Amino acid sequence: MLLDAETYPKTARLTKRSEFLDLFRRGRKVHTAHFILFSKAGRTRESRLGITVSAKVGNAVVRNRLKRLLRELFRRQYRKLLSQRDIVIVAKKGAGELTWPEIHGEIESILTQPEKRRKNG
After folding, report:
1. In the chain, which end has fewer C-beta atoms inside a 10 angstrom radius, N or C?
2. Does 120 map to a domain?
3. Distance between CA 12 and CA 14 in Å, rounded?
């Protein structure tokens, strides 16, 4: 099922530990001030998102708020993604204090960038 403008179905989520580990090992890594994004070409017809927020970021309320905001950003940017990719966003310490515009500004441009090819060698 392709992602609808108002939904975030389970098919659009990375849920298995092996999927996260594969992205950590083989994915393209991009650092921002408060996040690390891993991405690579996906195996499914649609882009999928995984989020990792450790206790270093804040208490459960802060972590869950941040995850909700990141999922909402992904849902809104889904149609702008240039290719089907699996994406994992890892929050760094301090990300819990960010506002919606700050999160949006930091991640939106990275999500919509074309995937760069790696050089062999």
Report:
1. C
2. no
3. 7
